[in-house]
Write a structure and sequence with these properties.
Oligomer: homodimer
CATH superfamily of the largest domain in chain A: Bira Bifunctional Protein, Domain 2
Helix content of chain A: 25-40%
Shape of chain A: globular
Distance between the termini of chain A: 36 Å
CATH class of the largest domain in chain A: Alpha Beta
CATH topology of the largest domain in chain A: BirA Bifunctional Protein, domain 2
Number of strands of chain A: 27
Chain lengths: 506, 506
């Protein structure tokens, strides 16, 4: 294979990161653009990832007492308008349903008919429609807390889209809770952010920074937005999940009221929190290399591919039996909430077979030839190593050790991503250094810059805006804990209580 | 409780079956109508049922080689128009997206803006958008079969809706497959219908008849539609799932072509098959009684509720510990793909507590009072028995036997539904008997009639239409196997090869 000397993906990350991303997805067969503007088709290899991520999240949600429910896809325009900041935030990206049937038009083709008296918005998020339900469900303090999650599709009309990262329709979960006190709602906001941190770091192997958004970056209608932020390999930040404390804003908008123990009518305090198929984009951008996707084992679409090498047709049955025997044993092993997922690829297409699986990012590739069988062995390639770096294992040792091997890969991926993030995150106290950090050295490659700057900010929206206008750099979050020493704002030199995370962002 | 003497649900099935259905759902807290016309809110107790049904189906699909994927919510109008019968079938019930943002209108309120060049239809089903993807994925016979399933929401605008049975938006799965030969596609159609039969009978405890639809009842665009049909307690039929052999109709419409082994370009043969949240309606209508829902244990939202009886506050800790100990043991037991799901209800609200759980249909209610604890026992009510009919169990015997108890309930429900269906299914050879069978005896209760008639039909659409016009009775299916003796058409007395199932239907 000509590819073996070079890399499987062209261009490389160094050559053109945005194009590399598109090519990696194409080569992995995870998703593709659809004929519907901005909407993607998630193919089986990509969807399996989402199934695995969803299952992990769902289990954790349920452990905290959250229950799943389902609310309408459509939101009446008047509902969206109930919360001023909220509708303002979403008005520019709404898919609007205006008719409920089709009929023959003048030219013989079908045209929309049956106009609706009130337009319906395809949900961009569900605070207002779920708020309406909560207002009926909740009457007494005894009804609280209400802890609900919904797995759903949402639509936010986007002009510039990118598979998984920004699409007009995406899949997500949205949690919505109502509480008797602000403190309890804030605690829930943080609790769910912690679930997101845990899933990102322990399952997706993506290290994240947790913190709070500045006022300009918070969710439309929220009091405070907390988030997890990750660093991609182009050193840009990606917001991977958000958890909002909504105060009583939506309770006022939807009249979510309860009678307290003291028989006083009070408004409830609500939260919402969500992660989406964007996590798959984050995973790809964090771990993949110039040979394609690298899947963290704990959420991988499959763990092991067995590739029998059938050179002489008369050996076929023996090799296939040997292969099947290994598959059967592996499939009985439990690994992080499901059994080891095994693919068997017996196609006779030469080296292309091996490279297909490398590009798909499967953690372990196992070649099984006549010699391996004769010595009761298998020949194993790890996706976190160089493609040529393979090792022979005794069959039993491989099967018995496969879970450790997968965990080793998982930990390697996490450590590598953590090292990368730490290397490119710098405390930055001088404005000239700050500007240089974010200014591309090479004008032909405007995406290359320093990474995350930990700098002081006075809290003034004007300084935030100046920096954004000058460098296209934003405050990704005001991190929780640590870095609490006081200092001077990187922009205006005014007093600052703590450092915040500045970065270019997706 | 005044209710204990009468029934918990008013009206009863006998008094008013359609209203009884609405009341049963309300009392069970499974779903409610939403402010969006025809769309429902599925509440946690109802959604859990859907999660369990989905998991069972998903496992079975995957065992047959099917993989999940996800396709756009929106279908361009031109796609829908590619298959003439298909668009004709769905045109009257399409939610149409015509704009992609909102802006301030003349009166200050928001109005739709950003008109789309081509209207988008919110998917009523996805043959055409998935067909487009298939046309890109498939080029050679080596790419076949393609076996895809999607879990999704769909919208079919309905004027008259009923929770779960007929809603403008519903949740479903839609399988779509492409094959090299007609025979293989037909085999797949039957294979998936068999999955539906198995899930209905073995998990939902709903006996079904499998068969083929007549031409007038088939899916718009299908060659043949096969189905499972169940009998509700008002003796009407409910179509609970369909599996379609689409021939090459959609392959022609979407240009799904492949090069055969002989290097000839051929059109693929496709299938589609689906079940929806309608199954929950079928389950409720099949098993519930005048005290509310009865959930079949294998898909029940939860299996056991433990109700500690705390009379003296000083006993609280001891009783709660005893209860928690039982819950911990039960929750470790595996039962049909998940662990036993236990609810603990320690509210002190008198008999209302017991009745709430009866109305919710939980299979086992367990009361735990000081006397039970003293004798290391529990007091158990089964939902398939009279509410007053409870039995004491030694605690260990209860825990050790709980799975058998649940299976006994499961089998009882199935047997009862099967007996009901058999009792009200009659071979019918005389037109006068046939008409009498379907004519209500009491004009005040037009829903009461005979049930399913197994009668001969000549195959003529005219006879089918006459019967429908006269009696509102349709051919539910031409059943597979059995009843193959020839006879005379119940309508025209013409020759008929076999009996078909006639019924009134949902």
């Amino acid at each position: 294979m000509a590819k073996e000397a070079a890399t499987a993906i062209e261009p490389t990350r160094e050559e053109n990161y945005p194009e590399w991303y598109q090519e990696v997805i194409k080569a992995s067969d995870m998703a593709e653009n659809s004929p519907v503007r901005g909407c993607m088709v998630i193919k089986p290899w990509g969807y399996a990832l989402w199934e695995n991520i969803s299952r992990v999240l769902d289990d954790m949600f349920k452990q905290t007492g959250v229950k799943n429910a389902y609310f309408p896809l459509f939101i009446p325009l008047s509902f969206l308008e109930k919360e001023a900041a909220h509708v303002e935030g979403f008005a520019k990206e709404c898919a609007v349903v205006t008719h409920h049937r089709l009929e023959k038009g003048g030219n013989g083709g079908l045209v929309p008919a049956g106009p609706l008296t009130e337009p319906l918005i395809v949900r961009p998020t569900s605070e207002t429609i779920i708020g309406d339900a909560f207002s009926k469900w909740i009457t007494s303090y005894r009804d609280l807390p209400v802890l609900i999650n919904q797995w759903a599709n949402v639509v936010r009309w986007e002009m510039r889209t990118r598979l998984f990262l920004r699409t007009s329709e995406f899949l997500w979960q949205e949690g919505h809770t109502a509480h008797a006190t602000a403190a309890e709602a804030i605690e829930r906001t943080r609790m769910m952010l912690e679930v997101y941190r845990k899933v990102s770091e322990d399952y997706l192997a993506i290290p994240v920074i947790t913190g709070e958004k500045s006022a300009s970056e918070k969710f439309p209608g929220a009091e405070t937005t907390t988030c997890i932020e990750a660093m991609m390999q182009d050193r840009k930040a990606l917001q991977a999940g958000t958890s909002h404390f909504l105060g009583q804003n939506f309770a006022h908008a939807s009249q979510i009221k309860y009678q307290s123990e003291k028989e006083i009518e009070e408004y409830a305090w609500t939260t919402s929190w969500g992660v989406s198929t964007r996590l798959i984009g984050a995973l790809i951008m964090t771990h993949s290399d110039d040979n394609g996707v690298i899947l963290p084992p704990r959420v991988a679409s499959a763990h092991v591919v067995l590739m029998p090498i059938i050179r002489k047709e008369q050996n076929r049955d023996a090799i296939m039996d040997y292969t099947q025997g290994i598959a059967d044993r592996l499939r009985k092993l439990a690994y992080y909430g499901r059994n080891i997922q095994v693919e068997i690829d017996s196609r006779d297409i030469g080296g292309a077979r091996n490279w297909e699986w490398i590009k798909k990012g499967i953690p372990l590739r196992v070649e099984i030839g006549p010699k391996d069988m004769a010595s009761d062995s298998v020949f194993v390639g790890r996706r976190d190593k160089d493609p040529r770096d393979k090792a022979a294992f005794r069959k039993d040792a491989f099967v018995d050790g496969v879970k450790d091997l997968l965990d080793e890969i998982q930990n390697n991926l996490y450590q590598k991503a953590l090292d990368f993030k730490n290397t490119h995150t710098r405390p930055m106290d001088e404005k000239t250094d700050f500007d240089a950090f974010f200014t591309p050295k090479n004008t032909e490659r405007p995406e290359i810059h320093g990474g995350f700057a930990l700098s002081h900010w006075c809290g003034n929206a004007g300084c935030e805006k100046n920096i954004k206008d000058r460098l296209n750099v934003t405050i990704r979050c005001i991190p929780f804990g640590g870095g609490n020493e006081a200092g001077r704002c990187i922009e205006c030199n005014g007093p600052s209580a703590k450092r915040v995370v500045f970065a270019k962002a997706y």
